[in-house]
Amino acid sequence: MSGTEKAMQGVADTLREFWAHRPVRPRAGRKLGGVATGIALRYRIDPVIVRIAFVALALSGGIGVPMYLAAWLLLPEEGDAVSPLEALLNKGRSSMSQAQTVLLGLLMFPALAFTFGDGGGFQVVVTLAASIAAIYLLQKNRGHLAPATTLAEPPPVPPVPGAPAWDPLGAAPFAWDLPEPAPRPQPPAPRPRKPRVAATTMGVAALVLAGSAIAGVWVPWFTAAHIIGLLVAVLAAGLLVGSFVDAGRGLIWLLIPLSVVGFGLTTVGWDGPNDFGDLRSTPKTVAEVKDKYEISVGSVMLDLRELPDSGSVKTSVEADLGELVVHVPKNADVTFNCQATSIGELNCLGKQAEGSTAQVDGTDLGADGEGGLKIDLDVLTNVGEVKVLRD
Known about the structure:
The protein is an alpha/beta fold. It contains ten helices and six strands, in the order ααααααααααββββββ.
């Protein structure tokens, strides 16, 4: 084995040793997730130095934020056998709930997008490499040290032998013969009042919701997706503030469903009309057939079976989310195009497809072959089920 190979093998062994004896996030003495305090205890260094390092990394291209979140997910908490991410993968039990773990994972996406989205890729890569080198040097030089159990404190002063309990340091030996003073009754300690982080955050969220609804009358930017995004930002800020004062944890149960709804709105892209419900139509003449049957969320049933046996119609049926069903006459010549642009299930005159961006098209001449009523049909949905039936 060459010298370079030996060196690389030594680096790999050191990093594996770091993972096997990785820092543990303590419950006491931490400011946020306990990452900096855990690293400081593991390698017996001042936690202020570690916190300053994370702040410097955050200001140097932003890499410190995703690094801290990653360490939060990968380092176990005091008393836990595995890290939150390992617990999410059913490799053990962690005191952090799965909902909190998922939230931290979701926060990684905007953190990484901010870090790599400003054209500072080279700086970020260099900073990340320097951080890995620092971890390697810590493990190499201080990995043999036993982790400290608590932050450094001054050693206790031993009591003077023979001194009474009220004078353990022997400051007044002339009064040792006096009787022990009776203990004073201690008043009950006032119960600490937690900051009302959740109530304050909900109040701010209500103001943001009301202000956005009013502003939406004049400013088109305030769509449902954007308003939900603002609410998610407010709730996430409340959770962040609450993590410093041990309050506001209940906000997560509102943040998660709002995040899911916001993700769905931005993924599907709601560009249709703002109507909901069911749409039913059974035209009896060619003139009664509309150019488009459109709904935002709901179901559409278009029955063309009562049209005459001759003539030509062209129409489309569209929805953002829902079920679209079109019935065509048995002998009509039908040219059709069925699509689900996001995800859906299609069954159009015997042609079937399902999944994301599904599409089927074709021409079906009916039981009598070519001739008679001609129908040109487009059936489109973002998410849902599409059927064109000849029955």
